[in-house]
Inverse folding.
């Protein structure tokens, strides 16, 4: 199996841009997804196939990919964006699924 | 709108078997374009994928749990289930079921969970 590495925490002030990275050796060959999880709630899919947004997810949440790194970007951060964010990818052999360790986004 | 709901005992004794069911409503579990998975989250920790099942009954599990896990599907009830044997305190977690969409695009593999249940807390304790 392989790993996805995320920073444990990111802090930004309201209105600023938050960027959360996820690094994995297999990411150049696989799509990644991102999930938002607020305390006491189930995760919610916010980005899939590196940069696609499900319906209902605001446009200020976006995803990008470059080599072994995928990035979740939240523009104009609001208090409601404070949550844990997890990246996830999968190998088609199995398939085998992995989550990153999660990043706690704090809105100052 | 598709909804998933986990159910099962909230307390399991050490060495016994944890059994959970996920009931799917608002859609059929037999659609071939989807898979169905279990994911857990120990208290204060991150998400851990347990395994999944196709509607055909083909299963796949994370290597660290493979010897103790069984996932099955009951198409007549639109449900799928998780059994985890020989549990210990380390299996205490919130357990989620979810629907998976997967496939290939431009030769790259995609796999993501688009609908999740609310989760159910399972505590392993005597």
């Amino acid at each position: 199996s392989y790993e996805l590495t995320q920073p444990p925490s990111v802090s930004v002030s309201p209105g600023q841009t938050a960027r959360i990275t996820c690094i994995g050796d297999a990411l150049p060959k696989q799509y990644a997804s991102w999930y938002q999880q607020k305390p006491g709630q189930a995760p919610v899919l916010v980005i899939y196939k590196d940069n696609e947004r499900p319906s209902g997810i605001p446009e200020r949440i976006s995803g990008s990919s470059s080599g072994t790194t995928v990035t979740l970007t939240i523009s104009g951060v609001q208090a409601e964006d404070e949550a844990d964010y997890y990246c996830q990818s999968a190998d088609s052999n199995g398939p085998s699924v992995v989550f990153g360790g999660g990043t706690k986004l704090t809105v100052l | 709108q598709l909804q998933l709901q986990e159910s099962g005992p909230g307390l399991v004794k050490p060495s016994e078997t944890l059994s959970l069911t996920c009931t799917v409503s608002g859609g059929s579990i037999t659609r071939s374009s989807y898979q169905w998975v279990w994911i857990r989250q120990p208290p204060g920790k991150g998400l851990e994928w347990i395994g999944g099942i196709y509607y055909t009954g083909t299963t796949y599990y994370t290597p660290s749990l493979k010897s103790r896990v069984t996932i099955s599907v009951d198409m007549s009830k639109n449900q799928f289930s998780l059994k985890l044997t020989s549990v210990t305190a380390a299996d205490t977690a919130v357990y989620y079921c979810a629907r998976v969409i997967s496939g290939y695009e431009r030769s790259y593999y995609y796999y993501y969970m688009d609908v999740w249940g609310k989760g159910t807390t399972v505590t392993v304790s005597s």
